[in-house]
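Support request, priority: normal
Reporter: lab tech (M.K.)
Component: structure prediction queue

Hi team, I submitted a job for DEAD-box ATP-dependent RNA helicase CshA from Bythopirellula polymerisocia yesterday, and the status page still shows it as pending. I've pasted the exact input below so you can check whether something in the sequence is tripping the parser. The sequence length should be 399 residues. Please let me know if I need to resubmit or if it's stuck on your end.
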Amino acid sequence: MLAALDSAAYHNPSPVQAGMIPRALAGVDVLGQARTGTGKTAAFAIPILEKLGTTTDGPLPQALILVPTRELAVQVRDEISKLAKGRKTRCVAIYGGKPIRQQIEKLSRGSDVVVGTPGRVIDLLARSSLRLEKLEIVVLDEADRMLDIGFRPDIEKILRRCPEKRQTLLLSATVAPGIERLAKRYMVDPEIMDFSPNTKTVDTIEQHYFSVDEERKYELLVRLLDRESPEQAIVFCRTKRGTDRLHHKLAKKNPAVNLIHGDMPQPARDRVMRKFRAGEVKILIATDVVGRGIDVSNISHIINYDMPQSSDDYVHRVGRTGRMGREGVAYSFVTPEQGIELTRIEMLINTLLKRDEIEGFQTVAKAAPPQESPADAEPAEKKPAAPGQRPRRRHRRAL
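Reply from support: The job had stalled in the queue. We restarted it manually and it finished. Here are the results:
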């Protein structure tokens, strides 16, 4: 393990790792509150690998890790493979969007650690292709996100199928009442560890906003990218269609632009993320499908082209930068009608966002000169109706 950590350039543990690893190795259940980008994947991956040891010849998995998204399943599998260097640990990722037959074949050849999304895990359990009777450790990663997107019934069904004598590790950015109920029902005297700072966002992230009219957002984005020249950036849109439209326009100016959203086939999403991690894609236009759990260390800028639907989503979007102590910058485009949304975000993170401007660029249309009210205007002369023609009636239009 020490050789693998040295090879991965993990020299000093983050607070999450220093707090969780000893307790997880001691075999206790842990409920850890930690945001993404704090090294929590290694905090549960290292104890799992240490507890598996070197005798991993059985056909059935000894550890199950549940995650909310396909991208996070791939990321966790890759992290475990990196930390298992020099061992013969078999880690299988199972998630929707890929042919289920291939995943069944991998499981039939034997697995030690399974990383999966709840929907695909349920599917494979129903087919008896995945068996859980030898499980020793269950991890719920990004548990709050899984509950947010409606996975509670699936998670409970999976946990009921797991052996009673097991260790459970639950990690969540927030400990809402739903998380507490889950922990109370399916964990044994869990130790609660809070690694969240007092503020909701990282201190190393500069956060700014622009007041901008909807129709001027694209031009503002182009000018902002020219001004900032980001190392790598994610531009968040609210809808899949909006993501497609923005990508179509921006890709004409910049070949290093790509997009990712939930309607794309899984192989295409994997391809985009591979290029983004390799640095071939500099600007990724995305929906909230990558709002959580994607760990790309070189992201220097986050741009909220569309404001998120909830204030919590803002925290998770912005958390894509400033990871593991690095510095990052976040910009939000706020239309005149979205002032209340900006206020909610500032209240949640307990920080005022700084207003920014691009020199020489008018983000908001100048107000038109006041028009003369009908009461003050002189009445226009009524033209007499032509002979044999009915006079035109004037109708008042409703607003």
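The first strand starts at residue 30 and ends at 33. The chain has two domains: 2-194, 205-355. Let us know if anything else looks off. Ticket resolved.
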